[in-house]
């Protein structure tokens, strides 16, 4: 899964965003609260290096709330603006609009000081496929403007939406990057349903899931996986013909909360690798 793959439309999106950069005042970077660091697209962040950014941890209803709090602390301690939201339900959105406005007005202080009114706030929503960008946009617009579906790669165009006279939002296609840093990053992206399922090996993905659950959620590991921390170990106790299909089922059960709220990575992992 670390091999070569990168759909052409993603490279095109980066090029188009680079071209549109002058029209964008702020990047709203949507992350999946179940794996906030693995869902940061450094490849795309390069485009927005000199722009104000707000990180939004989405799908908080699916993540472990205690770990979400640790992630909020982590982002704040590293001086990055961050908010938690649940785009599907629409919670936390007022804070997003407010934060976007004040961040942009702050960055355009000289115009504000000149007494100019209705200074435009043009935010681009960016993030990996299926993280909830179009859902967030629809919620902010308060109507179904953009197409939403639980499958990666739905939005294919960059489109501006007008929230009010001075507030505009750009919906963008989900983007990944040409090569995952590590196989684990790929497994997490697969679990989040942000990559087409023919690209990954479900058994490797579940092997990673079992390892993670056994490390961070021993009670769940006991309850659902007989304390197995690997796919081979788990399969030893099961008589299954189609092991890939069984693995897909487990992935689906993870996504639909059958095992409860599981967060796949923790700030301590980063702090440990920085040492
Ligand atoms: N549980 C939960 N589901 C969410 C949340 N936000 C979005 N979703 C769901 O995630 C799926 C993908 O949402 P989209 O808004 O289409 O995602 P996108 O980022 O626009 O996806 P692409 O256009 O493919 O890049 C849909 O099934 C949404 O209902 C959330 O906060 N919680
Ligand atoms: Mg979309």
UniProtKB/TrEMBL annotation:
It comes from the Bacteria. It comes from Xylocopilactobacillus apis. GTP binds at residues 58-61, 130-135, 174. The keyword Nucleotide-binding applies. This is Ribosome biogenesis GTPase A. One of its GO terms (biological process) is translation. GO terms for molecular function: GTP binding; GTPase activity. Belongs to the TRAFAC class YlqF/YawG GTPase family. MTG1 subfamily. The keyword Acetylation does not apply. Required for a late step of 50S ribosomal subunit assembly. Has GTPase activity. The gene is ylqF. Transmembrane segments: none annotated. Residues 14-178 form the CP-type G domain. The lineage of its organism: Bacteria, Bacillati, Bacillota, Bacilli, Lactobacillales. GO terms for cellular component: cytoplasm. Keywords: Cytoplasm, GTP-binding, Nucleotide-binding. It is found in: Cytoplasm.
């Amino acid at each position: 899964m670390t091999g070569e793959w990168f759909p052409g439309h993603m490279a095109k999106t980066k090029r188009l965003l680079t071209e549109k950069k002058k029209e964008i005042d702020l990047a709203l970077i949507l992350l999946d609260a179940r794996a906030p660091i693995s869902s940061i697209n450094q490849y795309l962040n390069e485009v927005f290096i000199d722009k104000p950014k707000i990180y939004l941890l989405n799908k908080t209803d699916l993540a472990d709330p205690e770990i979400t709090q640790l992630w909020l602390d982590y982002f704040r301690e590293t001086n990055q603006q961050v908010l938690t939201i649940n785009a599907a339900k629409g919670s936390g959105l007022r804070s997003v609009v407010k934060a976007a406005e004040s961040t942009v007005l702050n960055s355009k202080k000289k115009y504000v000081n000149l007494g100019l009114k209705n200074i435009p706030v043009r935010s681009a929503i960016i993030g990996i496929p299926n993280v909830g960008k179009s859902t967030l946009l629809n919620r902010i617009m308060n109507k179904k403007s953009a197409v939403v579906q639980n499958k990666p790669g739905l939005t294919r165009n960059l489109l501006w939406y007008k929230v009010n006279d001075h507030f505009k939002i750009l919906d963008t296609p989900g983007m990944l990057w040409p090569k995952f840093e590590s196989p684990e990053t790929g497994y997490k992206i697969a679990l989040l349903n942000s990559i087409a399922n023919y690209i990954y090996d479900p058994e490797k993905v579940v092997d990673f899931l079992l390892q993670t659950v056994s490390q961070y959620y021993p009670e769940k590991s006991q309850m659902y996986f007989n304390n197995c921390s690997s796919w081979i170990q788990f399969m030893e106790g099961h008589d299954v013909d189609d092991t890939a299909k069984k693995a897909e089922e487990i992935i689906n059960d993870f996504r639909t909360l059958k095992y409860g709220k599981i967060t796949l990575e923790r700030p301590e992992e980063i702090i440990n690798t920085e040492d």
